[in-house]
Design brief:
Blueprint lengths: L1 E6 L4 H10 L1 H4 L3 E4 L1 H10 L4 E3 L7 H10 L5 E5 L9 H13 L4 E2 L2 H13 L4 H10 L1
Helix pairs in contact: 1-3, 4-5
């Protein structure tokens, strides 16, 4: 599966720890991340990550484009709900695209752990069905 990893500044440490804890599962998937988050995960793990621009510089929109083209299967986005973000419209648009295109979106550690264990069990086979249907 293609998985996007995104984290606001105050949540980057949580994302790094998540990636370290679940490296053995994430390593089996194609990973994408916004700039700084991807760099930090790469430095802390052996994971191969395709990095986009930083979120405020368009990285959220680049991931959104993949979602709109049915080229992303899951988004793990550790948001900081207590800090105003200058690119909040981009964040809202990304979340809306996940809803429109039925992309699982975890916005906190608890949801991300549910998703990661689902990946480990193979619970997301329905994404392959949707992708095959869209290709017809």
């Amino acid at each position: 599966m293609k998985i996007a990893l995104i984290a606001h500044d105050k949540k980057k440490e949580d994302m790094i720890n998540f990636a370290i804890a679940y490296e053995y599962i994430l390593n089996e998937h194609e990973l994408f991340a916004t700039g700084t988050t991807g760099k930090l995960i790469s430095e802390a793990t052996e994971l191969s990550i395709h990095r986009f621009q930083s979120g405020p510089l368009g990285g959220d929109q680049q991931i959104g484009a993949l979602i709109a083209n049915n080229e992303m299967d899951m988004v793990i986005f550790f948001r900081d709900p207590l800090t105003a973000q200058p690119h909040e419209p981009d964040v809202t648009a990304l979340m809306r695209l996940c809803d429109v295109y039925h992309i699982p979106l975890a916005t906190n550690l608890a949801a991300a752990e549910i998703f990661i264990h689902g990946l480990e069990r193979g619970d997301f086979k329905w994404r392959e069905i949707i992708k095959a249907k869209d290709k017809k």
